[in-house]
Amino acid sequence: MKKQIREIELLAPAKNLNVGIAAINAGADAVYIGAPKFGARLAASNSLEEIRKLIEYAHQFRVKVYITLNTILFNSELKEVKDLIWSLYNLKADGIIIQDMGILEMDLPPIPLIASTQTDNYSLERIKFLEGIGFKRVILARELSLEQIKEIKKNTNLELESFVHGALCVSFSGRCYLSSYLSGRSANRGECIQACRLPYTLIDGDNNIIVKNRPLLCLKDFNLSNNLEELVDAGITSFKIEGRLKDEDYVSNVVAYYNKRLNEVISKKEGFERSSLGVISLDFEPDLEKTFNRTYTTYFLKGRQKDILSPSSKSVGKLLGKVKDVFDDYFVLDKNIEVTNGDGLCFFDKSGNLIGSNVNTVLKDKIYLNDMSGIIKGIDIYRNTDTKFLKNIKTERKIPLSFFFEENNKGFSLIIKDDDNNQGVSEIEIEKKEAEKKENAINNIINQLGKLGETIYTTKEINIKWKKPYFIPVSQINEMRREAITKITLERKKNYKIEEFKIKDNNIPFITKDLSYEWNVSNKLAEQFYKKHGVVNIEPAFEIKKRDKVMTTRHCLKNYFGFCPKENKTIKEPLYLINEKGQKFLLKFNCADCQMEIVVVEK
């Protein structure tokens, strides 16, 4: 009996068509991209024509394209959303990522549905419900531990998608209303102002300042690159990189790095393979520290980690060394590291602020900055823009082809095959003339067949089978190659399998009969869905009626500053956060569930 192969998917973000192509060329097995509307990153919306082009490019490599429609919806938008889903289905999109359960009450095409992390995929009970109503895949909450992931996989047959890299939302996804409260721009509508990246002052119950003007809700970036094997073993199907606002350089570097690491992991295991095709070529060595990062954390994968706050909301980059000597207009590092004109260097001042400046000139070990303010002996210097590294980021993806050039009764045939057994055939009828220079005749065929130019193909092998070398005009060989390439391209396109998946129309009971506003019900179809599944009381979404609690997070400031009750340490409560505009927020601590809530005090 043939052993079943488990496919592993590296999933990359696509801000637009060009970034999507860059992700694919760097090794992504799938990409996710925003539609013209209703994606959770309004600034990363794309036209249907751009999406069509990306799908066409991706499917050549058996790369899937998922579309994000993961905002909550209002009644006036429901028909537009349904029409958009049908349009995406007709474009041959491989799936849509959704948050709003009202979509399940629509007349949908048989397109796979993926439950966004905004649907609060934190508990096994919730995930089993999503499986019961017919979701193909769920995107797991970032806050889950490895043991929790294992437990979920053991009890469900769903595909599990897990974030492995990128920026972290401090709040449970889908349950953050801070942006909406402060600005009227809702994170659940794709308009987050990233209020969690701003500085706050923490005070205790006696108005004592514990810490002043620091990014107390800004987490380090996620990085599970050293935990991929554990996640494969835990049952993760799709390894997701966050970043639908990131540019081509960032995506190319990060995808190339994870592509390499995933290949290393599955090369040691039997029964695993990547879900897409193609050979990746790089002109650089991927390095996660040389692209945007707020330093890194594994978050809750191995349990609660105390040091998860980022030292800055800006990119810190890679540590170069310490300042050895300082002079009027330049400084010297304690390590011999190449620095280039235009590089961005940064350091933390005495107050903990990240200060940056560009390199103006480098003369041997002397580094001249545009602004030398704050540079003192002994401080750490980081590079958050590496101009030479960015300049060398080049990737290429090709499909390897085997060529079989053979003699037949009437002339010659050319058969081209890929690794999926697709093939293209061309033949010519020609008078056979023995070649005067036999070696040249063979080389001529090899050289002409290998001229694949701007196509997506590369030569894996060329086999020539004839009784003796013949002279064949170059034009004839080229014509055979072009015809066979055209045919195999059409064959590969025809054989791409679009998976169809239908939601189950049932009334299995939901996990609760009462829905608070944190379930984000904002339209009549969502109400209809939940009532069908036994829900009795439904509060409208925050975007319809504002409430005081604006965030729930596993990040705990009492724990971070060493005042966790479980460690028998106390602090004068209540605790408050105050932003730069003087707005005040009460911190509530749910110690039983190890969670923190942020509640509006002054409106």
Explain this structure.
- The chain has 13 helices and 32 strands.
- By secondary structure, it is α/β, with parallel strands linked by helices.
- Helix 12 (524-532) links the parallel strand 27 (514-515) and strand 28 (537-538).
- The strands form 6 sheets. Strands 1-2-3-4-5-6-7-11 form an 8-stranded parallel beta barrel, surrounded by 5 helices. The chain has a 6-stranded antiparallel sheet with strand order 9-8-30-31-32-29, with no helix packed on it. The protein has a 6-stranded antiparallel sheet with strand order 16-15-20-17-18-19, with no helix packed on it.
- Among the domains are: 6-168 and 220-290, Alpha-Beta Barrel (TIM Barrel); 317-391, Thrombin, subunit H; 400-495, no CATH class.
- The longest helix has 22 residues, at 474-495.
- Helices cover 23% and strands 28% of the residues.
CATH topology heading of the domain at 6-168 and 220-290 = TIM Barrel
Class from helix and strand fractions: alpha/beta
Overall shape: globular
- Assign the CATH superfamily of the domain at 6-168 and 220-290: Aldolase class I
> Count the strands?
32
Distance between the termini: 67 Å
Task: Point out poorly predicted stretches.
Answer: none
What composes the largest sheet? 8 strands, parallel, barrel
Query: Multimeric state of these chains?
Result: single chain
How many H/I helices? Answer: 13
Kindly state the percentage of residues in helix: 10-25%
Strand order of the largest sheet: 1-2-3-4-5-6-7-11
- CATH architecture descriptor name of the domain at 6-168 and 220-290: Alpha-Beta Barrel
CATH class of the domain at 6-168 and 220-290: Alpha Beta
- β-strand amount: 25-35%
Which radius of gyration do the C-alpha atoms yield? 28 Å
